[in-house]
Amino acid sequence: MAGRKKRKLKLLAETANGDERTATEDGKERLELQTWSDLPVELLELIMSHLTLEDNVRASAVCKRWHKVAISVRVVNQSPWLMYFPKYGNLYEFYDPSERKTYSLELPELLGSRVCYTKDGWLLLYRPRNHRVFFFNPFTREMIKLPRFELTYQIVAFSCAPTSTSCVVFTIKHISPTIVAISTCHPGASEWATVNHQNRLPFVSSIWNKLVFCSGIFYCLSLTGWLGVYDPLERTWNVLAVPPPRCPENFFAKNWWKGKFMAEHNGDILVIYTCCTENPIIFKLDQSEMVWEEMKTLDGVTLFASFLSSHSRIDLPGIMRNSVYFSKVRFFGKRCISYSLDDCRYYPRKQCYDWGEQDPFENIWIEPPEDASSFF
C-alpha cells in the first residue's frame, strides 16, 4: 500500500514538472516570436520622436505599424514658395517646389508696385508712381503702410514681420566709395531717418539685394565682395576687414556683379557665387577668424536663392537637402532648377546657368502659410 502511494506521488511530481517545463518553453517560444514591431505604441512614439528626419523615414519602411507611428511624429519643414509677379493683370502665381504644384491668387492691392524684399510671409513693396512703401501679406491680405520714401538705387530689407514691435526697415545707398547713406524706418513711424556714414574701406552697394538680418545685425555685401554691417540698436555702420571670397578668374566675366546671392542660417552668413560657365561656389563667413570658407556640403541644409531675398531650411524631404534652389522653373512648371552639392551638378540638366540674365523683379521666395487650403 505504501509503495503504491509513493509511486503515485512520484508520477504526480513528474507530471507537474513536465507541465512547468512546457509552460516555460511556451513562454520562451512566445518571447522569441515577438519582434521590434510589437513594441507598445507609446514606446515607439517616444523613440521615433528623437530620430532625425532621415532616420524617421528609414524607420517608417520597416512595417505598416512603424510607418503609421513614424508619420505621426515626423517633423518636416515647409519649403518657401516662389511667388511670380505678372507684367500685366492681378493674377499672381505661387509655386511649391516640394509638391511641384502651382497656386493662383488675385491680388489687385499690388497694382503698380514692385517687390523689394520678403521675410516671415510678408512682402515689402514700393510704388514708384507715388513713392509709397508698404508691407503686404498675400495670404491674409493685411497691409501696413510706411511713410513715403523714394527708393531709387537703394537695396532694402527688414528684420522681422511688421506686426512685431522690433521690426526695422533698412536701406543703404553709396554716395561715394567712402560714404553711404543709410535710411531706417519702422511701422508706425511718421518719417524715415537718414544718416550718412563714413567708410574705413571702399564700399559700393550692389544694385540687387545682397542683404540679410542675422543676430540683430544687417549684413550687406558690396559690389566687389566687401561686407558691411549695421547695428540698428546702436545705429553704427562698419565695413569689416574681411577680404572678399576668392573665386576663379572666370567668375568675374559677364554679369559677375549680378549672379551673387546672400542668405543666413542659424547665425551663419552664406554667399553663393555663380558663373555661366562654372558650378556655383558657396562661402560661409568664419566669424572667429574673419575669413570666407568655401563649403563643400551644406550638412543637409537647403538654400533658396533669389535676387531680392534668399532663405534657408532644414528637415526638408531628402531629395531637396544639401542643395540650392534657384528662382527658375522649367518643364512647364514641373521642376525647379537646383544645384546639388552631393552630385556637383545642376538639375534637371547638367549645364550651367547665367543667373545674371534673369529679371530680379520677376519672382521672389516667400514663406507659405501653414494651412494653404484656406487661401486657395
UniProtKB/TrEMBL annotation:
Residues 33-84 form the F-box domain. InterPro entries: F-box-like_dom_sf (IPR036047), F-box_dom (IPR001810), KIB1-4_b-propeller (IPR005174). CDD domains: F-box_SF. It holds the Pfam family Beta-prop_KIB1-4. It comes from the Eukaryota. SMART domains: FBOX. This is F-box/kelch-repeat protein isoform 1. It comes from Theobroma cacao (Cacao).
